[in-house]
Amino acid sequence: MVLRRAVVSDVPALVDLVYGLAEYEHARQECTLTIEQLRTALFGPEPKVFAHVVAAETGLLGCAIWFLNFSTWDGVHGIYLEDLYVEPGSRGRGYGAALLAALAKEAVDNGYSRVAWSVLTWNKPSIDFYESIGAVAQPDWLGYRLAGDALGALATGASPVPRGNPRPPIESTTA
Questions:
Q1: Is 95 among the catalytic positions?
Q2: Confidence band of 175 (pLDDT split at 50, 70, 90)
Q3: Going by fewer Cβ within 10 Å, which terminus of the chain is more open, N or C?
């Protein structure tokens, strides 16, 4: 096993790992990533996404795909771990911990203040693993996502279809 930064030739296998994660998370139909998209994101002229991989002679066994975020409170960057995935047959061998350790080293070496990520509330094996390495859940924070029709509606100033408990509209003034 070798843990290293991803290289261009890893991209097709990385895409396969991402689809494996989407399948594991019961959301395969939502994954539309292409090889070209990931190649451009990781290795284009100005990459904004990075990846570490666990490689064996047989191929990639796992990956951590991440990007930089910024903490206004700390005044420095941090790492946001978008995907951590180890193939089912390779789990329990320390590869996930090794990938997270590589990101921790990346953060420390570059003066970043944190490594953060999200986990599905039903994913008890991952939650147990994260807590076993010292990660702390952020129970006071709730993740939100703006996407699809709601994203387009907000971007164009249209009224989105309210969901849940609708709030009165906020009047906007432009100076």
A1: no
A2: very low
A3: C
Using only C-alpha atoms, the chain has a radius of gyration, in whole angstroms, of 19
Q: Which two tokens stand for residue 99?
A: 């990938």
More confident residue, 153 or 163: 153
Catalytic option among 85, 95, 112, 130: 130
Question: Which two tokens mark 67?
Answer: 């990007």
> Quick check: helix, strand or coil at residue 88?
helix
pLDDT tens digit sequence for 139-161: 899 888 888 888 898 899 887 66
What's the whole-model pTM score? 0.87
Q: What is the mean pLDDT of residues 5-30?
A: 97
DSSP 158: P
Cα–Cα distance list, 7 to 13, 15, 27, 111 (Å) = 11, 13, 27, 24
Half-sphere exposure (Cβ direction) of 162: Cα atoms closer than 13 Å: 6
Residue for token digits 């070496």? 109
Q: In what order do the strands lie in the sheet with 50-56?
A: 2-5, 50-56, 59-71, 76-86, 115-116
